[in-house]
């Protein structure tokens, strides 16, 4: 009987890892889907430690996919700052805009993170915010921006940063909010994708570092290290292929697919869960 219970627990966390992994990079809200999955499978992983743990797996997948961009930006920033290479200024400014865009979510996270997580984690809230996500994805579905990496401004970075801060609300997709904002300020799809996911790296990394004490103190980490590890591995794999899928759909200009999906899941959360 105990072995069956252990297998069921592993299955539950396997599903949570897949849900986190697939929905983190695509614009459908990973936090909202984790809340829905917990309701469906009755998993009591309600603390932030599990979400942060599997979120780190998604972070590693994003870093793997954008590793060449990361290396280039670091190298170009070094050349601009310490070798005076004017040709590296565009990449250096791109890094500065990423820093600027990170500030709003950092402020919101420090001041209101716990409050937002507790107060807005209900299934009905997730249903409403998924419908809001669908609306904005529908609005930008046919936008064709012109701004490339070297055309961005401080104003663009602030607007995208504020959108990312709004996405601390469960059900509002982080990638969706930042890509919507990026395209509304005129970025090309490729630039919007790159800016959104490179922006994800410092936010996710910073959150993980700040929450290390909570993860260490969480008794579930000791009791459920096997299921947590399984969820971590599945989240990493699913995030990698989820982001690849999203990049392909963005290139083909089919963002309305995600809008339809968010409407369906939002209505499910509102009326059937």
UniProtKB/TrEMBL annotation:
Q: What is its EC number?
A: 3.6.1.27
Per the record, the GO terms for biological process are: cell wall organization; peptidoglycan biosynthetic process; regulation of cell shape; response to antibiotic
Key words, A-Z: Antibiotic resistance, Cell membrane, Cell shape, Cell wall biogenesis/degradation, Hydrolase, Membrane, Peptidoglycan synthesis, Transmembrane, Transmembrane helix
Enzymatic reactions:
di-trans,octa-cis-undecaprenyl diphosphate + H2O = di-trans,octa-cis-undecaprenyl phosphate + phosphate + H(+)
Which chain positions lie within coiled-coil regions?
none
| Location of this chain's protein in the cell | Cell membrane
| Top-rank lineage group of the source organism | Bacteria
Query: A GO CC term?
Result: plasma membrane
Instruction: Give one Pfam family, short name only.
Output: BacA
Q: Does the keyword Membrane apply?
A: yes
Query: Which GO MF terms are attached to this record?
Result: undecaprenyl-diphosphatase activity
The annotated topology with respect to the bilayer is: Multi-pass membrane protein
Q: Where are the transmembrane segments?
A: 48-66, 92-113, 119-140, 192-212, 224-243, 255-272
InterPro entries in UniProt? UppP (IPR003824)
Q: Which family does it belong to?
A: Belongs to the UppP family.
List other remarks: Bacitracin is thought to be involved in the inhibition of peptidoglycan synthesis by sequestering undecaprenyl diphosphate, thereby reducing the pool of lipid carrier available.
Function field: Catalyzes the dephosphorylation of undecaprenyl diphosphate (UPP). Confers resistance to bacitracin.
Which protein is depicted? Answer: Undecaprenyl-diphosphatase
Q: List the source organism.
A: Tetragenococcus muriaticus 3MR10-3
**The organism's lineage?**
Bacteria, Bacillati, Bacillota, Bacilli, Lactobacillales
